[in-house]
Amino acid sequence: MLGRNMSPSFVVNLKRLISLSEIVKVTHFFVVCCDPGDSKFLELAVNGCADVIIWGEADLRILGRIEDILIRRTAVFIRAFL
């Protein structure tokens, strides 16, 4: 049940986001960064066939890419589309 304090526009946008989401089964596991907690995001991106990972922390960005997936800072990613 959605919270009573949520604005109607927030609820509409949340439902739209959920409708665009997909469940990804993770079958390819690996550890390539110094923070083991970040591995789950890389695994999700690889198993979900993502095009790009937008990430702020340097430990992932230093990789540049994982398999065929680019890893970019938010600002760099946004500038590429402006």
Describe the structure in brief.
This protein is α+β, with helices and mostly antiparallel strands and 82 residues long.
Describe this structure in words.
The protein has 82 residues and is an alpha+beta fold. The chain has a domain at 27-81. Helices cover 41% and strands 11% of the residues. A three-stranded mixed beta sheet has the order 1-3-2. The longest helix has 13 residues, at 8-20. The model has no long low-confidence stretch (mean pLDDT 84).
Per-chain topology:
Layout (H helix, E strand, L loop, with lengths): L7 H13 L18 H9 L4 E3 L3 H4 L3 E2 L2 E4 L1 H8 L1
Q: Which stretches of 5+ consecutive residues score pLDDT under 50?
A: none
Helix coverage percent: 40-55%
Work out the strand percent. 5-15%
Structural class: alpha+beta
- The largest beta-sheet arranges its strands as 1-3-2
Average predicted local confidence, pLDDT: 84
Number of strands: 3
Please tell me what the overall shape is.
Answer: globular
Please state the CA-atom Rg, rounded to the nearest Å. 16 Å
In N-to-C order, the SSE pattern is HHEHEEH
Could you give the distance between the termini?
Answer: 38 Å
Helical segment tally? Answer: 4
- Tell me about the largest β-sheet: 3 strands, mixed
Features:
82 residues, alpha+beta, three-stranded mixed sheet
